[in-house]
Design a protein that fits this description.
alpha/beta, 2,3-Dihydroxybiphenyl 1,2-Dioxygenase, domain 1, Signal recognition particle alu RNA binding heterodimer, srp9/1, 4-stranded mixed sheet, 4 helices
């Protein structure tokens, strides 16, 4: 069996006209550090040793940033050592909050990427597999996602 894991690099494509807002949010609010800035692409780093690298690609693309508008929606998970403080910082920044059946904060950054905020040491087992009767909760989450996708298509 071949071993597969997710890496520590990702990229998102955002409308070019949102460049200043994207740079401010990822830097000032989330704490990313720019390792390279350009007219068409920024490279950002979060963390010093166990880093996550994110490329922001600016394009002449339409703003279709509503989350769950299709079956291809995805979110990135942010882990934080002070969830309450980061939650307030994110909310105060004025970004769009995304309602889901999950109790975590989901928000949409400038440019359209959606994040889920969790604690660094939080036990997320219940979100990874059925634990003692979670079948109903999982069915509700899946149904809500399908309904949103159908409403926006």
């Amino acid at each position: 069996m071949v071993k597969v894991i997710l890496g520590n690099h990702a990229a998102v494509v955002v409308p070019r006209q949102e460049r200043d807002e994207v740079r401010r949010f990822y830097g000032d609010i989330l704490g990313f550090r720019a390792t390279r800035e350009g007219a068409d692409k920024d490279d950002l780093q979060l963390g010093e040793h166990d880093c996550f690298h994110l490329s922001i690609i600016y394009g002449d693309v339409p703003d279709e940033s509503e989350f769950l508008r299709s079956g291809r929606s995805i979110y990135l998970e942010l882990k934080c050592d002070d969830v309450d403080a980061m939650r307030q910082k994110v909310i105060n920044s004025g970004v769009t909050l995304v309602e889901t059946p999950d109790p975590h904060l989901y928000f949409q950054a400038p440019g359209g990427q959606v994040f889920r905020l969790v604690g660094i040491h939080e036990d997320l087992t219940q979100y990874e597999r059925d634990v003692g009767g979670d079948e109903q909760r999982n069915a509700e989450i899946a149904a809500a996602a399908r309904q949103r996708a159908e409403q926006t298509s």
